[in-house]
Amino acid sequence: MTSRAGLLSQLLKIGPLAAGLLLTAPAFAQEVTYRYYDDAPAEVAPLDAEEAALTETSAVAATEATDHAECQCDKCAAKKKAEAKKKLDAAVAGAYKGVFYDNNFDYLCNPAYDDYHLGEGLKRICINDGSAIIDVGGEYRARYHHEQNMRGLGLTGLDDDFLLHRTRVYLNAQVGERFRFYAEYIDAESNYENYAPRPIEVNRSDILN
Question: What is the rounded distance in angstroms from the CA atom of residue 85 to the CA atom of residue 83?
């Protein structure tokens, strides 16, 4: 009986202490949990739709820039130079069109152009520090005719020998990108004929455009 009474007495003494430990345990566990998360790396917040699209666009642009970066090796530089020369030669060959007002002499402004053709000194003339550009050009043609049984209009039975001359001169002026002035002069003449020339063969001092 004494031992049982003593055991009960000890349990009663230990009871409040055990209850205190049980009450303290949740707070201790919570504090440990908080400390664990405070020491952990911060979690990255997810991007919204706009930020994600911007990030993806930047990544694509960076990739394309890398893919299209020009190679600076001697072989690629020589290839690039040859392609530029080919384009320049094509521009020179195509400068003169079927009508004078469509002519294009922009190739003269290309620093790589080092050739010369007759009349180029009168093209792309800069005035007032380049605010205005003038082109001057033209042509002269002479053609000898020996006609049998056709002098005049149709088969006339008339023979004739004569020389046709035609001179054309034009002026093209550009001021900026919005203003352009173009004028063209013509003088056509027929010489050494025995009969009256055709109307189309003579046009003395006329303005075409």
Answer: 5
